[in-house]
Amino acid sequence: MPYFENRDASIYYRTSGAGATGLIFIHGWYQTGSEAWISLARNLKPGYRIFLPDLPGHGLSDDVSPNFSIANNSQLIESFVEHARKSYRLKKVILIGHSYGAFATLDIIARQNVAIDAAVAISAIDDYAPYVRRLKQALWVPGFLTGLYYRLQAALALFPYGDRLHLYGAMPQSLQPGRMAYAQIKNHTLSVASSRVYMRAFLTGKVKWPDGKIKVPLLLVYGERDALTPARHADAINPHFAKSEVVVLPKSGHNVQISAAEPLARALTGFVEKSLRRAVAGKHGSHVRRH
């Protein structure tokens, strides 16, 4: 599978499917493109070109650069969107993000530097302020104690290792990794050093919304049992969009795209198809008015 490079980073991505509509999936912190999205992708209808990039520091992508920031990461994703559109001859691009990937999706839509035809933000926030205290607690640990701190967090299934059963709870217990084994999996996905770079960036993470309503159609999705990013966060996001919908999926936690892959696939597909029909209708309507 190919890599995409810009001046700041080189990222690995997987692509599959075919069609003139591209679905670009942006994963969250401590995941890879395939880990986050493969369950959902398997439940989507054919007819879309699917892209699953690994963000910097994650999976098979390069480590985070010294000048890493949320703004630079958004620019990287914007460049990847343009690359996908041109290289794969896409007519429409739908940007879909989960957790930090949802924040990045909203940030990119707000920046308005690249054409996006519709967006889906899963477990989304637009401001990291509620999480700053927890992030600072992790960053306050001196460097020489970092390894011990993370091992203790793993043993107690605490931040950032507390989502093990969200990912593996449906599997037979014999196949579920233990707490320390799960920490090793997570740290292989994203190193402790890179994790701390992301945390420092999150401290000031806030979407800078433009004046006026954003015209890009938006679907917000939350899990009913998500204690990390509950659905009330939609109240701060919705007012910035002219067309937005909120879906809350029952019996689901933070990793909705894994625990509720089938109903999410239906909701996502319905939203995408509706958004594309509206776009076509809008073009025809403007043509009629000109005549």
TrEMBL record:
<protein>
    <submittedName>
        <fullName>Alpha/beta hydrolase fold containing protein</fullName>
    </submittedName>
</protein>
<feature type="domain" description="AB hydrolase-1">
    <location>
        <begin position="23"/>
        <end position="267"/>
    </location>
</feature>
<keyword id="KW-0378">Hydrolase</keyword>
<dbReference type="InterPro" id="IPR000073">
    <property type="entry name" value="AB_hydrolase_1"/>
</dbReference>
<dbReference type="GO" id="GO:0016787">
    <property type="term" value="F:hydrolase activity"/>
</dbReference>
<dbReference type="InterPro" id="IPR029058">
    <property type="entry name" value="AB_hydrolase_fold"/>
</dbReference>
<dbReference type="InterPro" id="IPR050266">
    <property type="entry name" value="AB_hydrolase_sf"/>
</dbReference>
<dbReference type="Pfam" id="PF12697">
    <property type="entry name" value="Abhydrolase_6"/>
</dbReference>
<dbReference type="InterPro" id="IPR000639">
    <property type="entry name" value="Epox_hydrolase-like"/>
</dbReference>
<dbReference type="GO" id="GO:0016020">
    <property type="term" value="C:membrane"/>
</dbReference>
